[in-house]
């Protein structure tokens, strides 16, 4: 520990890198593929295409990676054609499974238009290396002494798999899962059947939005269950309103992004260093930030000098020079040529 | 200006740019990481060999050369290009223009701020681009002759020998920060106190590293290592200075007046970048050692294109210039460098 600190300080002062690991990274990579400072390595153990354009990926994290709590997510970094692309995914396997097999599972909905998931099955071949972060997230099973109802929409099922397989044997309360997906796209139904066979206090419903109308109809309010919800924004809003109305404990996890079609006067919320602002799509971000007196650096104003560059943590911008849309994940963007296309989170 | 179809010129060059950027990918990422790897190997084998000079002085010489090579790779091909944002698309935290720092006295972020903006936007515009002559040398008739210009050849030699400190002082715009000279249009968002602090902090760390820490770590071989570091820094200074002078100060490179560049179109901006720069021909390893500043014209046209692509686009750019009847300044190293020396001497006199 002491040694690491000394080396890191030495690197900061004299080797011009924030950490010694960062300095030796390219050397280490010749022995250990994808070795990166501040990230864990993971090797692809298995990858399968599932129905409804889902990928199931089994990863073997390196030995220093500390097991997650069921329901938490990691960020997955994959080098695709020279670019390090990062996305956040919830682990769809339990810590118990990690302890016994050394593997974690991701269930990833692939998107033909996506810039990341579309390329994943090509980039993540068995035996290839990628990076994962330490697990984070607050969406975990809170109280095993109470009945619980899990409500999942689409790929919102992933944290539920982790929580159910981890906790069903630690609770005797009634646990139900209401799982919405398109008709043929319910994932891992075999596993759910097996859980229902093993644990009589667990039951589940597979539904589609079209067939059931009101998504809260199957919540048994008289059991006074804690509600755990994960799905698209509007979906969760409905469930959340319902839970508040009936005075039920409510926990949710947001994911994904609904991309609106570009309309020049659309307004977006921008989170800059954790304060919120509203910007319009009718101008680049830089002049709008200047008008709001945010601490931005203006350089050439035409996308040459990279002085106004900042880290985009999430959201999509259009590069006005090339007309290209950015990724949704973490990236460097030049504010002077970036037009907002979605809500954004930036770090200045 | 000559009768040139600037819109066509802009579209020809934009086509080259978009085609090339479309090809950028794994190959370029692997390239820059391989250069970083070579830099690390040179640096550490160099530092170790410096300590073996007592066995055989030739080992010390090899150590000096390797360390100088490491510094040159770090400053030129890696540092300069990474800080231009050429490799930002990789999203690699170690190769990112916002955080990169190099093995040279000049504070990287101060350089990043001034160089990319002043020099690359206002290339060779007298009064705007402070890199033209660095405020020390008279290199065109745009500047009034002064008596100190008589010995400017020796000023140039001194600048080359101490180049890293010259760059550091210059990018800080020290005459403003320390002496208080005012010039509008260049007040950055960074306070003078911060600039000063970064100047001294970075400079001191470089001095401590090369002339205290590593010599002390060598114990009884203190002097071998100290002298080795000194010579390696000198070699790096001479090399970088020489290459950089060849980029903008050959006899044929042109200068521009501020009023000529008001409301410049993209095509006119491209035109000025080409006339204000000159290339050096050479083999691949030579281009790498110059940080691809040997492709200065391409670098100025497309400052954020990965350096790994400059050799590939150079013939395409040259063909476009030929088509439009625009001069494309290039030549071998000795031709270009002697041209620079002539220019320095020529403008020593009225």
TrEMBL record, chain B:
<protein>
    <submittedName>
        <fullName>NADPH-dependent stearoyl-CoA 9-desaturase</fullName>
    </submittedName>
</protein>
<dbReference type="InterPro" id="IPR005804">
    <property type="entry name" value="FA_desaturase_dom"/>
</dbReference>
<dbReference type="Pfam" id="PF00487">
    <property type="entry name" value="FA_desaturase"/>
</dbReference>
<keyword id="KW-0812">Transmembrane</keyword>
<feature type="domain" description="Fatty acid desaturase">
    <location>
        <begin position="60"/>
        <end position="330"/>
    </location>
</feature>
<keyword id="KW-0472">Membrane</keyword>
<feature type="transmembrane region" description="Helical">
    <location>
        <begin position="211"/>
        <end position="232"/>
    </location>
</feature>
<dbReference type="GO" id="GO:0016020">
    <property type="term" value="C:membrane"/>
</dbReference>
<dbReference type="GO" id="GO:0006629">
    <property type="term" value="P:lipid metabolic process"/>
</dbReference>
<dbReference type="GO" id="GO:0016717">
    <property type="term" value="F:oxidoreductase activity, acting on paired donors, with oxidation of a pair of donors resulting in the reduction of molecular oxygen to two molecules of water"/>
</dbReference>
<dbReference type="InterPro" id="IPR012171">
    <property type="entry name" value="Fatty_acid_desaturase"/>
</dbReference>
<keyword id="KW-1133">Transmembrane helix</keyword>
<feature type="transmembrane region" description="Helical">
    <location>
        <begin position="48"/>
        <end position="70"/>
    </location>
</feature>
């Amino acid at each position: 520990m002491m040694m690491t600190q000394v080396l890191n300080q030495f690197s900061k002062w004299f080797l011009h890198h924030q950490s010694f690991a960062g300095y030796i990274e390219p050397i280490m990579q010749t022995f250990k593929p994808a070795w990166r400072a501040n990230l864990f390595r993971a090797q692809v153990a298995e990858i399968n295409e599932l129905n409804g354009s889902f990928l199931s990926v089994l990863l073997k994290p390196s030995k220093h990676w500390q097991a997650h709590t069921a329901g938490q997510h990691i960020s997955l970094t994959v080098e695709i054609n020279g670019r390090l692309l990062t996305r956040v995914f919830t682990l769809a396997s339990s810590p118990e499974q990690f302890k016994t097999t050394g593997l974690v599972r991701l269930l990833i909905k692939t998107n033909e238009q996506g810039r990341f998931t579309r390329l994943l099955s090509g980039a993540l071949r068995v035996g290839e290396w990628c990076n994962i972060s330490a697990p984070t997230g607050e969406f975990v099973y809170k109280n095993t002494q109470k009945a619980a109802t899990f409500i999942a929409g689409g790929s919102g099922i992933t944290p539920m798999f982790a929580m159910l397989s981890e906790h069903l044997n630690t609770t005797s309360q009634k646990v139900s899962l209401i799982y919405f997906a398109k008709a043929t796209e319910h994932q891992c139904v075999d596993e759910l059947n097996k859980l229902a066979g093993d644990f009589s206090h667990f039951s589940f419903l597979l539904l589609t939005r079209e067939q059931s109308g009101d998504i809260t109809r199957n919540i048994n309010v008289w059991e006074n269950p804690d509600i755990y919800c994960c799905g698209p924004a509007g979906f969760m809003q409905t469930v959340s309103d319902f839970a508040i109305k009936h005075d039920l404990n409510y926990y949710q996890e947001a994911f994904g992004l609904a991309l609106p079609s570009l309309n020049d006067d659309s307004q977006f919320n921008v989170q800059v260093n954790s304060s919120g602002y509203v910007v319009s799509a009718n101008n680049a971000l830089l002049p709008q930030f200047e008008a709001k007196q945010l601490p931005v650096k203006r350089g050439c104003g035409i996308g040459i000098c990279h002085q106004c560059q900042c880290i985009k943590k999430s959201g999509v911008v259009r590069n006005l020079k090339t007309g290209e849309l950015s990724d949704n994940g973490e990236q460097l963007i030049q504010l002077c040529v970036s037009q907002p296309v979605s809500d954004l989170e930036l770090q200045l | 200006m000559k009768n040139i179809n600037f819109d066509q010129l802009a579209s020809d060059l934009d086509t080259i740019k978009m085609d090339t950027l479309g090809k950028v990918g794994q190959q370029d990422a692997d390239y820059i990481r391989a250069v970083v790897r070579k830099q690390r190997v040179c640096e550490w084998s160099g530092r170790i060999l410096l300590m073996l000079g007592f066995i055989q002085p030739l080992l010390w010489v090899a150590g000096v050369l390797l360390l100088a090579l490491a510094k040159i790779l770090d400053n030129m091909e890696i540092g300069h290009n990474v800080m231009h944002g050429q490799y930002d698309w990789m999203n690699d935290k170690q190769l990112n223009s916002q955080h990169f720092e190099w093995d040279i006295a000049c504070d990287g972020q101060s350089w990043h701020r001034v160089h990319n903006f002043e020099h690359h936007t206002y290339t060779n515009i007298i009064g705007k681009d402070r890199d033209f002559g660095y405020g020390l040398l008279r290199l065109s008739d745009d500047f009034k002759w002064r008596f100190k210009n008589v010995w400017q050849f020796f000023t140039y030699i001194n600048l080359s020998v101490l180049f890293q400190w010259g760059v550091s002082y210059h990018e800080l715009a020290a005459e403003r920060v320390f002496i208080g000279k005012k010039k509008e249009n260049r007040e950055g968002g960074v306070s003078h106190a911060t600039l000063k602090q970064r100047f001294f902090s970075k400079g001191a760390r470089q001095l401590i590293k090369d002339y205290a820490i590593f010599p002390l770590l060598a114990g009884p071989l203190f002097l071998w290592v100290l002298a080795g570091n000194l010579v390696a820094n000198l070699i790096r200074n001479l090399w970088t200075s020489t290459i950089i002078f060849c980029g903008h100060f050959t006899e044929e490179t042109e200068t521009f007046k501020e009023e000529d560049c008001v409301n410049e179109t993209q095509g006119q901006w491209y035109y000025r970048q080409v006339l204000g720069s000159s290339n050096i021909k050479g083999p691949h390893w030579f281009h790498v050692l110059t940080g691809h500043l040997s492709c200065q014209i391409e670098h100025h046209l497309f400052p954020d294109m990965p350096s790994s692509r400059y050799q590939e686009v150079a013939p395409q750019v040259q063909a476009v210039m030929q088509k439009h009847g625009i001069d494309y300044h290039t030549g071998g190293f000795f031709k270009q460098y002697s041209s620079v020396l002539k220019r320095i001497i020529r403008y020593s006199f009225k």
